[in-house]
Design a protein that fits this description.
alpha+beta, three-stranded antiparallel β-sheet, globular
């Protein structure tokens, strides 16, 4: 699968879902999909994961830009045969850009997936976590001498 197709698919899906939530829900509104288990809840997250460091938008924008640049740097160093590493980086890049767009446009990130036992999160966050998991999986499976690109 092409790297930039995955990046675009994550970014487009993330921004579309967030747009629909903002357009059709009031902040704090929660719609039960599976009552008491999974809800769609519109939350404005002014911080990072779990809302930590709220209102440090400039800091998170700077970190987001650095993360994007680091991902692009490592992507260019990967061979085409390293499919899962490339997929992991593409998921992370799409998610990072999605949350970065939110911060630049509004100063907060739109979160919506609410499992009631975990803080509310979004599609970009999901892509980032899956991307990191793929990266870790592939790095742990690599022979020790091949871990340095």
């Amino acid at each position: 699968m092409h790297f930039f197709f995955v990046v675009f698919a994550v970014l487009f899906s993330d921004q579309l879902v967030k747009f629909l939530v903002v357009k059709n829900m009031a902040e704090g509104q929660s719609i039960p999909v599976i009552p008491e288990i999974f809800h769609l809840t519109f939350v404005k997250n002014y911080g990072a994961a779990f809302g930590i460091m709220a209102y440090k938008t400039s800091f998170f924008v700077a970190i987001g830009i650095v993360v994007v640049l680091i991902i692009l740097f490592f992507y260019r160093r990967l061979g085409h045969e390293q499919k899962l590493l490339r997929l992991g980086l593409a998921l992370q890049l799409g998610g990072a850009i999605g949350n970065l767009i939110d911060r630049l446009r509004t100063g907060y990130v739109v979160d919506l997936f609410d499992f009631r036992i975990w803080p509310v999160f979004n599609l970009a966050d999901t892509a980032i976590v899956i991307g990191v998991a793929l990266l870790c999986w592939e790095i742990l499976r690599m022979p020790e001498g091949k871990r340095n690109p």
